[in-house]
Amino acid sequence: MHTLGIQQLYDSDPRPTFVVDCAAEPVFIYHLNTALLALPQLVHSVQSHNALRDWWDPASKAQSRLQDNFRYGRYQWSKFSPSHRWLIVTLVEEPQHITDLCSSQPEGSLRLNSSAEALSPQSDTIFTVKVQSPDLQEHIERLRTLDWSATSLGPITTWSHDLNHLLTTLILETRPTILFLGPDHIILYNLAYAVASGSRHPGILGRSVIDAWPELADPIAATITRSTTTHFVDAPEEEYHFMMENNGLVEESFFLWSLVPLVGSVDGMYSSVTEVTKQRLSERRVDALLRLAQLTSQANDAEAFWTAIHDAINPYEYDFPTAVLYSRLETGTHATTTSSNSVSQTCMYTLQWTIGYSNDHPAIPKNFDLGDGTGLAPGLLNSEKDGLVTVYHRDDKVLPMSLYTGTERRGFGDPCRAMLVIPIRTSTNSVSGYIILGVNTRRPYDTEYKDWIEVLATLLSTSAASVALHEEESRRRKEQEEQATRDRDALTTEVTALAQEATDAAQKLHNLQSIANAVGVGYFEYDVNGQLMHANDAFMLQTGYQRDLSNTRPFAFMDHVYEPDLSLAMDRWRILANGEPTTFEMRWKKEPSQELGCEDDIRDYLWTLAACIPVKAEDGSVTGIFGCTTDISGQKEATRVALLRAEAERRLADFTQSAPVGVYQCDPNLKIQYCNDEWFRVLGHPKVPMSDINWQSVIFEDDLEGVKKDSALVKTCGRPHTFSFRSKKNWTGPDGISTQTWILATATAHLKATGEVSSIMGTLTDVSQLKWAEAIQTSRVEEALESKRQQENFIDMTSHEMRNPLSAMVQCADSICLSLGDMQNLIDEETLVAHPILRTKLKDAISNSLEAIETIQACATHQKRIVDDILTLSKLDSKLLVISPTTVQPAALLQDACKMFKEEASKASVNLTVQSDPSFTELGINFAILDPGRVLQILINLITNAIKFTHTQSTRKVDLVMSASRQAKERADVQYAPQKALRQDYLDEPEWGTGETFYLHFTVRDTGCGLTQEHKEKLFLRFSQASPRTHIQYGGSGLGLFISRELAEMQGGNIGVQSNHGNGSTFSFYIKSRRADMAPQLEPWATPMSTHTKAQMSQNTIAETHNDAQPGLMHTRYHILIVEDNLINQRVLRNQLKKIGCTIQVAHHGREALEELRKTTYSRNPTIMPPHELSVVLMDVEMPIMDGNECAKEIRELQKTGDIVGHVPIIAVSANARAEQIEQAKRAGMDDAISKPFRIPELMALIGNLLEKDLNATHAT
Q1: What are the pLDDT digits (tens) for 680-691?
Q2: CATH assignment of 885-1091, among 3.40.50.2300, 3.40.920.10, 3.50.50.60, 3.30.565.10
Q3: Which of 159, 336, 950, 1091 could disulfide-link 163, Cβ–Cβ 3.0 to 4.6 Å?
């Protein structure tokens, strides 16, 4: 702060101010300014531990700390923090001076003195009586010399008799007593109270309560108010918890106060004070001991004991501001203290819990060794030697310093001055844990405190010993129970063993028989006569014998032997009868009564292995036959299956050798284990032993890495994989060109039970022929695509080149028409009235010229339709024609179609009518979602044909009818065109919404010449007309109805015709649509701004040009920049626009347009002064040097950089009529587009709408 000059700034402030260093530990007052130092009593209040400090101290827990302003006594303080470190506290409101207070009191309000009641000189007072005590004499002298005249009491000589008498009684009282006199409660107290007030004495003597002891101001004021309002003079004693400063330390104290209003002439309060600090501390400490004893007595083990200690002391924040408990880890070794005061063995202690510290406190480890001599270990080890409790002050530097200062805010929120270490002993030489307690920060560690802590330590050790004893008894009891259980189990085992031995002998035969039956081993005994004497269950099951042996005859087993083995059985019986043992295999019937079947059918017999021995008498004669039979059907079946598998493997090997593909098997390291001859041939690898195969050497170098990656993929994925590569072997195609051999590989990984790959099997196929064919096919497709692209380019170029002169023709015709109109006006003037012959000739010439102009316009319109049809056909062929959803009113759409042909129908004397079917109203359709441009395109084709084929008939009528239905209902009388293909339902796209679907039906009915059945069959075909005479008589390209059919099918509908020759025709089509919930928010589709139907809107007639368009155009005075490289079109368009009053500038390409733009008001720095006005730019697209799209992009970039101010309106004027070409122009920066040929009225309407839109946008921003 010295370097910044802040200290001088605050010292010059007249308001008492002090600065607090919040980064210090603990927080302290860094600086007191000069104004504050001039008020010693205020300095004392600031530095004392009182309510004021609780407000400004950042570590305080008081609610007042959250306030920016605080009133303490008479003073109003304010604080703010200019940074995280510094806190500035300023006195913002000083108290009124005492003399002002006195003067402001009403006369007679101080009933403390009066001339009538003044003490007479002969009266004795405390100041005149004699006292023995020197301390009392000193106190009285202090009272005498105090400047009472500065208080509301006035000089002592003016005090009344009652006040002096009251003061004498007060001073001679031996108990702490205090008086609060006058309206501002001036303090007077006796010697006993001086001792009780501590460091506040004598500063508070003769001062008002609110200045001397702000903490008492509110209670005293409340008592006075209560006694004044209730008139009760008796008040109950109240206890106050004060922080008293004693020898520089703040101590908590408890006092009983009695505040009694004085009765009589003296105005004030009388209070007696009794200090009850010892009683309250004793009660609190005893309560803590009782809680500790109660909770620890409920603990049955060490874990619960440590938790109980925590729960017992945690609520007592003042007496236990911090606590740390460590318990000994039971590691099998114990720490003992030797005579040399060292730990003989390692003793580890673990942290149980902390109070008042964070979990990651650096001085409190989770575990520590008591003998490592660092951290907490020295202090804890010394406490074990010193006795019950050891005190460590901060200055002792035995415990880590952060243990004192790095605490959480508990209790009073002060840093700890001392720590108590208490070893918790379970016996004299055994310590089960240590508890480290923080000393109460506002009480001295005196004898009473020490006695209480020693009782606490004794209680902890006693409880710990009790818990340890309980655990020991529980452990001993558990061991005794476990030993008894072991003894009982041993005795039971011994008895069980003896009983088992007694029963084993009896069970052996039974067990043997059971085992034999279980494993399928049959045993038997025959006498020499072939009579079965004994057999087990397994033998009975194998042979099919009845269990009742009493009815069996000799050699009955022969009935159960499988027929092919009868002779074998008898031969073996003879061998046994001769006294020789034998072992053989034989078969038993599964069904004794069954007939002999196929020996390959193992279901008919049971294979057994028989081992037999003769039973001989002592003389060596054979008395019987004993033997056993084992079921070996499983082994026989396994042998048969193994033979079959071997045969299958042989056949597989033969197949793989003759297979037309290469077959291989390799290990996980891709080492070939097997491959057939075809594998060598396909891959081009020389035929060598399997161990010498190096398949990587024959792979084409560019494909080797790919083969390795595919092989690795097979191993990692574990599923079949197919890939292709080239080998170095040459392959020659049918065209004689040699290339590498293309190979198609399949690979399958075989897995072990563990999921690891055991081997990889697959095939190799030579696909060079297929690759060659694919290359030929790809080449032909590319050629076809290139041919199609060139065809489209040719169509675009043809369209472009045809539209340019058509535009000039149409505009020249309009210009001539306007000129003829001017001539007509001249003829009607009076100057030619005197020349009737000349006037008649001019009128005839004008009439003939108008007819010629009409013919020119009709021819241009016809040619334009042909070009439009060719472009639409090109889009259809390229699958580029899209249906764009728009919310429109179908009724308005039909009316607009009628308006387009109103003049043409009138000239042809055709009655054109429009009507809506009742079904349309019944469905309640107002707005619908459809593509109005495509619908209007179909209607234009149908209406054009209807007028064309009707104007030569005697009855000339064309009706337009619109209806609606929920389903696609086709008229029974209409012959619909067959659907070419299944079309995609475009209504499922999100932009078509979710409204109800329905179908719109449009019908165009005329009274024309009609069609024969042969003619109807040719309709709706590409480049097809009803008959060759149709083209000769009526013209046309034969594309209109084909395009209409395609557009109807694309919109989910169809088109058809009903006609008879000589009776007119009815063309009907329908489309699928959705209901729109609300009107569209954008411009209506039929405005001149829309580019969807721009071409169709050129149906306006020449008469409209002269009669309707011209008056509106004469009022426009646009400033237009024409950018056109075609000089003819440029000149024609310029002359036309000049005729209607526009100011024209021209440019031949984009570069010149940018130069012209720098001369206009749009340029930030115009190159000429004054700059030209500019309303709109008419921009051709295809131009040399810089085309229109590039120029538009450049203009928009100049707008972004600020070189051009505002938005320059640009309209693309081009012979490119494709929708994608128009969209490309708009993306480049064009605002709108108009396709050639166009007429001036159309252009002016487009300009007007664009400028109106820009004007509205400008007003909106």
Answers
A1: 999 899 999 988
A2: 3.30.565.10
A3: 159
